[in-house]
């Protein structure tokens, strides 16, 4: 059974992050952690996260000192991940109850709602014309700041091996 580190970058989403964290707290899987990376939010986001994760051992909060953007925020989460399976989830996303069980059988995958796939979007280039609720496909594109920041905010979740992600993120 694989172990997963779920990384949630967040910036100024005080209500949405709590709904996301509630969802992640109830996934049907045993071996996972949740790393929330607060990208220097200027509202109640950090306070709300701290209140929610109090006494929850599988949750950790990392706070960026200044706003770094989603790519660097995700990278900060990856560098602090305990496990080798990285699942990136935006704060506006809720995952299906059994998603980690499904990912347990995959090497690398992308999970995105079908209506996110657009021309000019890295996911759209890979998964053109697929219009189903969730898509699970092998993802082999090189991860760069440009394509990792390009996905629409709050509408994506991705899974990568930690070694693949950190190696690609260096370039």
Structural features, described:
It is built from 7 helices and 7 strands; from the N terminus they run βαβαβαβαβαβαβα. With 171 residues, it is an alpha/beta fold. Strands 3-2-1-4-7-5-6 form a 7-stranded mixed sheet, sandwiched between helices. The protein is globular. The model is unreliable at 112-155 (pLDDT under 50).
Total strand count, please?
7
Q: Describe the global form.
A: globular
Structural class based on helices, strands and sheet pairing? alpha/beta
Mean pLDDT: 75
Q: Name the helix and strand elements from N-terminus to C-terminus, one letter apiece.
A: EHEHEHEHEHEHEH
Span of the ends, CA to CA: 31 Å
Strand content: 15-25%
Oligomerization status of the protein chains: single chain
Summarize this structure as a short list of keywords or feature phrases.
7 helices; alpha/beta; globular; 7-stranded mixed sheet
């Amino acid at each position: 059974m694989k172990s997963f580190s779920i990384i949630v970058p967040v910036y100024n989403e005080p209500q949405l992050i709590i709904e996301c964290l509630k969802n992640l707290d109830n996934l049907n899987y045993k071996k996972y952690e949740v790393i929330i990376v607060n990208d220097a939010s200027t509202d109640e986001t950090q306070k709300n996260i701290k209140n929610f994760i109090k006494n929850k051992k599988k949750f950790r909060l990392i706070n960026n000192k200044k706003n770094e953007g989603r790519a660097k925020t995700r990278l900060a989460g990856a560098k602090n991940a305990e496990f080798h399976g990285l699942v990136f989830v935006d704060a506006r996303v809720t995952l299906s109850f059994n998603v980690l069980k499904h990912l347990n059988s995959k090497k690398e995958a992308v999970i995105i709602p079908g209506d996110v796939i657009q021309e000019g979007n890295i996911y759209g280039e890979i998964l053109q014309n697929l219009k189903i609720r969730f898509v699970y496909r092998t993802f082999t594109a090189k991860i760069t700041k440009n394509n990792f920041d390009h996905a629409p905010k709050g509408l994506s979740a991705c899974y990568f091996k930690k070694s693949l992600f950190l190696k690609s993120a260096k370039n």
